[in-house]
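Contributing new records

If you add data, match the layout below exactly. Sequence lines come first and carry their own label; structure lines follow with theirs. Keep one chain per record. Anything else will be rejected by the validation script.
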Amino acid sequence: QVQLVESGGGLVQAGGSLRLSCAASGRTFSGYARAWFRQAPGEERAFVAATSWGGGSTYYADSVKGRFTISRDNAKNTVSLQMNSLKPEDTAVYFCAAGRVPRSSAGSYDYWGQGTQVTVSS
């Protein structure tokens, strides 16, 4: 059974930092892009960041550019999201995903985690 499991969410004050991790089990994601999306209450799931299989190409939503950094460790089958200078509007459930191409469309991803809550207080 293929699973993606996120961890690292929590409550943080505005301006603080959190690091999310996503561990994969059940298969390796050789050749797969990895990504992070987020979903706030009442809103659609939105792209946050993505990285290519080798990690040489990364992509970010404009709203997080310069504050968030996506990275991956293929040997450990994990992907991380370092989030700095957090803002209240970053509050959402964060999901990791795996797909063949690092696109910003949620429909491009085949595998999803269950999500981890990030809450940023003002």
